[in-house]
Specification:
This is Outer membrane protein beta-barrel domain-containing protein. This protein has about 190 residues and is mainly beta. The protein has one helix at about 1-10, and strands at about 25-40, 40-60, 65-80, 90-110, 115-130, 130-135, 140-150, 155-165, 180-190. The chain has one domain (about 1-190): Porin (Beta Barrel), CATH 2.40.160.
């Protein structure tokens, strides 16, 4: 175990000599979301397409490792067959808009290709069930994200990630029990 920790530490902190030459980068990104929800109350559900738009910073720790906090607006949801009490399933559309604040640890495999993972702090700003505004959603969702990014010349980049909510999206005492958001995001952006 000690050898594994030592090897991991050497990989992460490889290149610390060049750290002083690195500066914080700022950027903007936009993309598409493919989201859904897990719930014991759903007999089946479909992916919903949404958007995300926001700002980010990349804070180099070493030449291969950085911290990337982000803030963006995201639209997500699902269309699901909800199992009703004493009745047949009913098709219901859920739309949830969040301000997501992921804080990712980013490790560069090459000069341009990186993997990233970290927690995401999500704040509900709007919710609709079948087109009607509701207040069943939890105002805060804690989740995680893991993904990959590629930096092009000229400051442009592309990224793809999977995210999953660890806490319930809806208030289970008043609405749906054990509902978790999950999905994929694909985006493009520019660092300056």
């Amino acid at each position: 175990m000690k050898n594994l920790i030592l090897i991991f530490g050497l990989i992460i902190f490889n290149g610390t000599i060049g750290m002083a030459q690195e500066s914080v980068l700022f950027g903007a990104k936009a993309g598409v979301n493919f989201t859904s929800m897990n719930s014991d109350s759903f007999s089946e559900n479909n992916t919903m397409t949404g958007l995300h738009l926001g700002l980010l910073a990349e804070i180099p720790i070493t030449t291969k490792f950085s911290i990337q906090p982000e803030v963006f607006y995201t639209t997500q949801g699902t269309e699901a067959e909800v199992i009703m009490l004493g009745g047949s399933p009913r098709t219901t559309e859920y739309k949830l808009d969040y301000i997501q604040v992921p804080v990712l640890a980013k490790f560069y495999l090459t000069e341009s290709l990186a993997i990233a993972a970290g927690p995401s702090f999500n704040f509900l700003v709007n919710e609709e069930v079948d087109g009607e505004e509701t207040d069943f959603g939890n105002s805060f969702e804690f989740g995680g994200a893991v993904g990959v990014s590629y930096n092009f010349t000229g400051g442009f980049f592309a990224d793809a990630r999977y995210f999953h909510g660890f806490t319930d999206a809806f208030d289970s005492e008043n609405y749906i029990d054990s509902s978790k958001n999950y999905g994929f995001q694909v985006g493009i952006g520019f660092m300056f």
